[in-house]
Design brief:
Helix content: 25-40%
Strand order of the largest sheet: 3-2-1-4-5-6-7
Number of domains: 2
Shape: elongated
CATH topology of the largest domain: Rossmann fold
Largest sheet: 7 strands, parallel
Order of helices and strands: EHEEHEHEHEHEHEHHEHEHEHEHEHHH
Number of strands: 13
Number of helices: 15
Strand content: 15-25%
């Protein structure tokens, strides 16, 4: 049954996976869906091309003032407002003003922060309780680490909803072939630890490198450092839109994310959906949902080149049947979340 609730997203950058959930929401509501989003390009932008969809109105943040955001809320009278955290003060100001006008509106904070127990977070909990707790009715979290974060910020289980992120299952829910190669997808920036991956890979014997090439897909300021290695077994491909990325991943391989810290990492879900064995660092938030070491891949200690080398080496030792079984197990874990589950998780606030 469809809901007649109108929804307004006050979001950061719209990516392919966010777009997939938005399109799913269209099928489950007769109300309007508006998305205000950050549209200013930065070095960290993913460069996803927004293809306009029937039922969704997009508003670039550079084209809409703080006052106009409030006016949009008044005009649309949304039952649900989704805000990507509290980074954009204009979003917060509009929500505060509208909440006073319509106290029954349900305002949802989309959260991918991990609970670290740091002094900064402990102080932040006090600040949040004073200035924000009254505003946000729910926290919409990604996984286990984010659930703990929401609890620390004063939310009980009835006020925490899950599955804020899903890979776009319309694109990536297709099985890849089998191929001996390591594949990294992401931004070429220092926090992704590409230097660590390249250094560990180059420690493999030459014959193993030839049998297991390394493919890096993306762009960023670390690109020149990678190219300077002049290793013919390392191939660098540019950033790809989702459909092109799917075509490349369909060739198969071991999906890698070696980051020092990734709050979530939707690419991990994409790997899983496509049935890729995985090699992930302990800094990957989504590993809690999509990786079981020895079942569908291996985890290494973040920042440790020797731990990463050992994990790479394990893959080169395993037989084809073992690697194919890893892929089957990844697909099983990837099925835990999809666009519909994510969309319906949000709409569940209508019944809470």
């Amino acid at each position: 049954m469809k809901t007649n609730a109108s929804i307004v997203y006050l979001w950061a950058e719209v990516t392919g996976y966010v777009f997939g959930v938005l399109e799913e929401l269209v099928h489950h509501t007769t109300g309007t869906i508006d998305v205000v989003h950050w549209d200013k390009r930065t070095v960290n932008s993913t460069r996803f091309d927004i293809s306009h969809s029937a039922g969704i109105r997009f508003h670039g943040r550079t084209q809409i003032s703080d006052i106009a955001i409030y006016d949009l809320l008044v005009q649309r009278q949304p039952a649900i407002i989704v805000v990507s955290g509290w980074m954009d003060k204009g979003y917060i100001a509009a929500c505060k003003r509208y909440k006073r006008l319509q106290p029954k509106v349900k305002i949802v904070a989309g959260i991918d922060d991990q609970c670290t127990g740091s002094l900064r977070q402990r102080l932040g909990q006090v600040y949040y309780a004073i200035f924000y707790k009254w505003l946000f009715d729910f926290m919409w979290v990604a996984g286990q680490l984010q659930f703990s974060f929401a609890q620390r910020y004063g939310y009980g289980i009835e006020s925490i909803i899950s599955n804020v992120y899903s890979a776009d299952t319309r694109v990536f829910n297709v099985r890849a072939g089998f191929c001996k190669r390591f594949v990294f997808v992401g931004r070429f920036v220092s926090i992704k630890a590409l230097d660590l991956l390249v250094d560990a890979y180059c420690m493999l014997p030459d014959e193993k490198q030839q049998e297991w090439p390394l493919v890096l897909i993306g762009d960023g300021d670390q690109k020149e450092r990678i190219l300077s290695k002049q290793n013919t077994n390392i191939k660098v491909l540019p950033f790809m839109q989702p459909e092109d990325l799917r075509a490349e991943l369909l060739k198969g391989g071991v999906g890698c994310l070696t980051t020092h810290k990734d709050q979530w990492g939707v690419v991990i879900h994409e790997y899983a959906l496509m049935g890729l064995p995985m090699l992930l660092s302990s800094g990957c938030g989504a590993a809690t949902e999509f990786l079981i070491s020895g079942y569908n891949g291996f985890m290494f200690k973040k920042g440790d080149v020797y731990s990463l080398y050992h994990a790479l080496e394990l893959f080169t030792i395993y037989g084809d049947d073992d690697l194919k079984r890893f892929g089957d197990n990844s697909a099983q874990l990837g099925a835990r979340i999809n666009n519909q589950i994510s969309a319906m998780s949000l709409l569940s606030v209508n019944y809470l």
